[in-house]
Amino acid sequence: MYSFMNDYSEGAHPRILELLTKSNYEQNTGYGEDLHSEKAKNYIKKHLKNENVDIHFIPGGTQTNLLVISSFLRPYQCVIAAETGHINVHETGAIEATGHKVVTVPSKDGKVTPAAIEQVLNYHSDEHMVQPKMVYISNSTELGTIYKKEELTAIHQMCKSKGLLLFLDGARIGSALTCQQNDLELSDIADSVDVFYIGGTKNGALLGEALVICNKELKEDFRYLIKNRGALMAKGFAAGIQFEALFQDNLFFELGIHANEMANKIAFVLKDCGYSFYAQPCTNQLFPIIPNNLLEKLSKEFLFSIQTKIDDQNTVIRFVTSWATTLESVDALTNFFIKNSK
Amino acid sequence: MYSFMNDYSEGAHPRILELLTKSNYEQNTGYGEDLHSEKAKNYIKKHLKNENVDIHFIPGGTQTNLLVISSFLRPYQCVIAAETGHINVHETGAIEATGHKVVTVPSKDGKVTPAAIEQVLNYHSDEHMVQPKMVYISNSTELGTIYKKEELTAIHQMCKSKGLLLFLDGARIGSALTCQQNDLELSDIADSVDVFYIGGTKNGALLGEALVICNKELKEDFRYLIKNRGALMAKGFAAGIQFEALFQDNLFFELGIHANEMANKIAFVLKDCGYSFYAQPCTNQLFPIIPNNLLEKLSKEFLFSIQTKIDDQNTVIRFVTSWATTLESVDALTNFFIKNSK
Amino acid sequence: MYSFMNDYSEGAHPRILELLTKSNYEQNTGYGEDLHSEKAKNYIKKHLKNENVDIHFIPGGTQTNLLVISSFLRPYQCVIAAETGHINVHETGAIEATGHKVVTVPSKDGKVTPAAIEQVLNYHSDEHMVQPKMVYISNSTELGTIYKKEELTAIHQMCKSKGLLLFLDGARIGSALTCQQNDLELSDIADSVDVFYIGGTKNGALLGEALVICNKELKEDFRYLIKNRGALMAKGFAAGIQFEALFQDNLFFELGIHANEMANKIAFVLKDCGYSFYAQPCTNQLFPIIPNNLLEKLSKEFLFSIQTKIDDQNTVIRFVTSWATTLESVDALTNFFIKNSK
Amino acid sequence: MYSFMNDYSEGAHPRILELLTKSNYEQNTGYGEDLHSEKAKNYIKKHLKNENVDIHFIPGGTQTNLLVISSFLRPYQCVIAAETGHINVHETGAIEATGHKVVTVPSKDGKVTPAAIEQVLNYHSDEHMVQPKMVYISNSTELGTIYKKEELTAIHQMCKSKGLLLFLDGARIGSALTCQQNDLELSDIADSVDVFYIGGTKNGALLGEALVICNKELKEDFRYLIKNRGALMAKGFAAGIQFEALFQDNLFFELGIHANEMANKIAFVLKDCGYSFYAQPCTNQLFPIIPNNLLEKLSKEFLFSIQTKIDDQNTVIRFVTSWATTLESVDALTNFFIKNSK
Description:
The structure is a homotetramer. Chain A has helices at 14-22, 35-48, 61-72, 86-89, 114-123, 149-162, 173-177, 186-192, 222-228, 237-247, 251-272, 292-301, 327-340, and strands at residues 2-3, 54-58, 77-82, 102-105, 131-138, 165-169, 195-199, 209-213, 285-286, 289-291, 302-303, 305-309, 314-320. Chain A is α/β, with parallel strands linked by helices.
């Protein structure tokens, strides 16, 4: 049974495995101070068109999020996120466990707006309330939507004018930056945020996120902070090698393009069959609204996740495609809907 | 230049890489709930001769240590460790960052004794002091020494009689259990401690530690705790596959044996050349005392680490061997000493 | 200018000051292990008709809240509170600073309902989300409303059936238990919750909250927890003496009655003048809706706080009365409204 | 039975109680923003001969210590303290509970030296170890000794040259600054440290410590930090009034002088009787070495505390005098020794 549950079901892209295998017997310096990590960082900087950033490889997304938030906020400061934000909903309190409140803004499409940020600032007026100091956004968002350049710029300006740090969670930035609606480049992001990360786990790596610190005031002693949170891997080179493979050419983006193409095909057919979507299809996560009476049948042939019951007769489900999604499985899925939708 | 810096310089044992490659396109359930992790756990349980333990794969050692300690202690409770203990010295305050004091006992050989534990208990007499609740030991220790069965049993009994939890850090348990002086089996450890871990990173895996919870009162909701600390990997199967390869047969132990044999050869020659050791050679870490005037020359041919200046003329250095250490490099090192020692 | 800003503007009730003065030169054991604290606890237990509770005096409310929540939750567990709850809004992230998320439920009147609790439980379904383990309610609430016996019983039963701890913040329990609509006694509360506190600061003491632990499983080592959070006062007897004065007879309740009477007078006149209220007047906090054009004039004669702008022309303000509120000042306030309202 | 257990057995100095009583019905702004707190701060600044400090009143000493340390250190940074330091031994892990390691230096007399600080710095050489960032000293120390001007200056210079913050715990600064050996003034301390506090609790107040932030880079948002740790008292004026009484004239120092005089008398007689001391008598804490066979008899007439068993036949005990110690009780104690010592 084919799974559209998520984009981290398979191992690593073969070119990553190849490089891991090829360099297997080299002796590397530990803790990410090896030559592969060095190379990987340089490749990424080239893609960023920016030499003035610090890059660190962190094993996973939750860890990257908690590390960033706890490192750059003082104890009484909070982070603003969309209600749907990963750090608010799906990290088992990992952010709060480091001592910081997540203050949420309502969001229909997974995005944060300058107006919503301003409302939070107006409300938090004195020392009896947490002090907002950081804005967390994800691109693509938890609903598969993306930020357009104009939107990101507006948030950036709001943050700058209010003294807020801007943190972009790029667990799915590969899909975001390669989708049709996108008008952002990696370098735009580095110019607009204080810190962000480039997700490896959900875009073809076995593990690893490349954290990019753009704001130079945040760079100091960051390796201490990584270690202090338990995120400094002895074999840091294993992440370095993977990002080397992803960024020495355009592999990272090719994988995003593939995932998006697979999603587009599914979205196209679903629309054609008359289904509507909870959030506009855009990247590799699709949220079609499916009549409940089709769900059981669908679930006998495919794995997917339930997002929410939208009314008595319909359910929002989630399909996720990835670098490893086969055309064959997409065809099977679209055929299912063509057959079952009249 | 050959490195004896540590046991995590190379990638993964080829049989691990093979299994990763072979299963690369399988679709796995996320977050460690996949079939490979299931299999790996079953293999480990067989080696433990114990079905009644819970096993979780955690990306790294510091993370495992902080997770265990913060999960099982209440806020006012502390962990007792040897002065030389990894959690006391080399984790950048990662344990304290979770809110817990590490209370140390002096130790010449890296080991904790029942008498030392009792002294801590006697001193911590009232509610104005932290309450000791856990003992942390490592096997092999940070000085390469091991616990004999008798010693472990004595600590276990002291802990039981005093209501203390016993936690064994097995980052290098592969080397410990396969060295000549060892009289412990994995099953003895599971019988003697409340929780321990089997280190993959330092024994041939790319990453991953297998945390074994033996005390059933500690098992509840542990996956919540892993996630809460950012240690639940999306591609948990990547760790599962590695431990499957290590434990489906005796690979894990074979790798320990190899590392120890390489260390033994070095120790034998060094002793023969008249060098003494800061801690008795036993496992894959050696701490020879080297005259300062030899250090520079040695460092031009080999990588190693400085442990401590023992007096004006001599320095304790550390050589570490591993699953990947070649006989050729060992010969080069021993030849160096044979040539330079008279 | 008379202040209706809050119920902690004046010092202590004279009978409290008297007892402090009278016992000033006695030599007391430190850290709350003195005879006055002992007596105070016994008096409170009599009022509770319950010998089987543990009582601890804590300097302030925020500290009591953070102490309770952090002591009884494991790291991945959260507390459920009304959106308006003090711990959510007005404690500068003090709860999150101890590592725990506050999950909120919408509330018009400051109260939590069993249905709202159930909704939170249904939503938090797996280990990727925080685990709800405690419900926080305040009586009276932050909007001056109270829980009726039936309501508290319903919450209690919901909590019991779902394995949730129930924590009642009684910073203003004096006013709550002595208002006209109330049908609860202190003993009902001790029977219904796992832990609660009796607020001294807002009911005539200089400082101090009496924390009552009803659930025997929560009692162990609690003095360690108090000290660990910095809340164990060297001169604990200073709080003990104050609670002795408050509970050796009915002073605590008399002070609540007075505060409520003063509030009732104000509420009566305001209603009579045609003003409506944001939350139904009940205890010593009143939330009248005042036309903006009256605000400036009012603020020249009285101190009060702004709650929220309810529409373009009206504002919800807050008046608070206390044990120290004089009839004269109440008359001045009511006269203001009589004069200015037609 | 008279107690020499500690300096917080009695209530408040009568002039403090008087001022509390006199101002009891005034209506004050909450949370320390009242006029009494304002006045008290101004009086203290005059004594400090320094307008450029920020002063905050905190309820207790442990809370002040944890607040300072957690506010000014980043997560991976530690504080250096003497082994005997209050924060290391007697705060139930309250510092570690905020996430920071206390790294200790050996100390015979309770004092920290520049050499000891330097040794810690040399040892903590890389990002795998905590980073020392603050030095904690207490004056008088936990052994009753004091820092001379020369010693404080030397520590200050070491800290400055190494980028360390210097924090002085002044829980017993009243006794320290008024003892015969002292050559420091309050203003010297403000010039030498980054932050310190003036202890009220142990020098005649019911509660309260005056935290003085001298380093202007540490001042920002400190009220947020106080609230975030639960240390912002609603009736902050109650502490303000007490410090007003202590500092509007020289009361604070007079109380220290009295305590020291009482201690001197005891020390004089004890020396005369041939007893030696564990630490040189200096301030209001005395640590005489008493033969075990005298202990039981002594404990039938006086309360005191046991410090440590120094050998098989002798025990170090602690006598503490205070603002409230009577000449009569001192005479009783000295007579006991005169009678029982030959």
